[in-house]
Description:
This protein has 225 residues and is mostly beta strands. It has one domain (2-224): Jelly Rolls (Sandwich), CATH 2.60.120. Helices cover 10% and strands 49% of the residues. The chain has helices at 2-13, 180-189; strands at 26-28, 34-37, 40-43, 54-58, 64-68, 81-89, 97-103, 109-118, 123-132, 140-147, 150-158, 163-169, 175-179, 197-209, 214-224. The strands form two sheets. A nine-stranded mixed beta sheet has the order 2-3-6-14-8-9-12-11-10, covered by helices on one side. Strands 1-4-5-15-7-13 form a six-stranded antiparallel beta sheet. A hairpin with a 4-residue loop joins strand 8 and strand 9 (123-132). The relative contact order is 0.23.
Amino acid sequence: MRTAAVAVALVGFLLGSTGIAQAATWGSSDQWATWSNGGYTIRNNIWGSGAGPQSIWANSYSNWGVWANHPNTGGVKSYPHAGKMINQRLSSLGRLSSSFNVSRPSAGAYATAYDIWANNNAYEIMIWVNKQGAVGPIGSKQTTATVGGHTWDVYRGSNGANAVFSFVRTSNTNAGTVDVLAVLRWIQARGWYGDVTVGDAQFGFEITSSSGGMNFIANSYSMTT
């Protein structure tokens, strides 16, 4: 029943404007499904406890999405995303910029967010461009800062395994460009870390609940060095 529901939801989502089902280039309902395209890796990444069914599809690294039906309970259930391995020292980067355009539900609980890892996952930098429902960042608020082309509430904390720095946009947006390098250097300037090695730079949807089944879509996305 669960597998059939996922399949029906995926086909239903991929209905074109003519009402005729159109297959995406790739799709899966596997918990850890991955697909590589154009130097990016797309991951279904259903990692939280109590998760419901979730199916992912993609036409490219830039255009992908998920249908997710996670129960209305606390705790992150999944983080479907597109990731690009940077693998460069912060001091050697001349540019790290990203553009995004998403379509997202008006209900549920989730954040549309970058998740950037540094120093072999010792540091996690989250950049929330929008949020919905009962979700919030790890740690305590440090300040409000304008950096990287946006204004953020900045939080600092730990999840027990690594330090977490979260930049939560003071108002939601579904499209824009973020100067990620400026954000990373802002953290360094405060002495919260040094000349770190930037690893996997990810962008996607951190979903806590999406009861009844909801669609999360990256209409376009890129990360440029």
